[in-house]
Write a structure and sequence with these properties.
The chain has 2 domains: 122 residues, Rossmann fold; 56 residues, Orthogonal Bundle (Arc Repressor Mutant, subunit A), CATH 1.10.10.10. The protein contains 10 helices and 5 strands. Helix 2 packs parallel to helix 3 and helix 6 crosses helix 10. GO terms for molecular function: DNA binding.
Amino acid sequence: MVVDDHPMWRDAVARDLATAGFDVVATAGDGPQAVRRARAAAPDVLVLDLNLPGLPGVAVCKELVGENPALRVLVLSASGEHADVLEAVKSGATGYLVKSASTEELLAAVRSTAAGDPVFTPGLAGLVLGEYRRLAAEPAPAAPAPGSSAPEAPRLTDRETQVLRLVAKGLSYKQIAERLVISHRTVQNHVQNTLGKLQLHNRVELVRYAIERGLDDA
């Protein structure tokens, strides 16, 4: 699904995606329309502009990903401002591409986003990982009161821990699969199992969890 308030741009992106073999299930030109149509069309990937009338793109992303954590969101924005990128990632976006990207870069980004791999315009990936580290350094929630039973930490398999460690280092699922000599699908399955065990919702929360435990330095 493609969301952008400029009709010519929106139509061009939708046309490029359809020509490349993607099934474009819906388009929308403002925030509220995007939320309504996404709920009805249930896309796998949302290509989303940030600057939308009615409801900003980050609010659209937060609302839709909150309802459906499996939704992948690729932000396609004219802005490469660091604050916009970080806000989009915190709202649940899987990737962030600036509109100066080529059609080939867009198509590759949509494919990666659909696979759950984070995609960022060159120069922004390090910024996002740095923000994960900053979030991980923030004080943890207060410990349970004395006498109350703290839930036991979930037990991950050795392979799940290996995958989690590589996710925390910023590797894509494809790179992890090559490093561990397993299939891309197996990596995805390990990540989904880990998310379930840790009661986390997306890769952003997973990376933060791993960094909090120092797994990115292991």
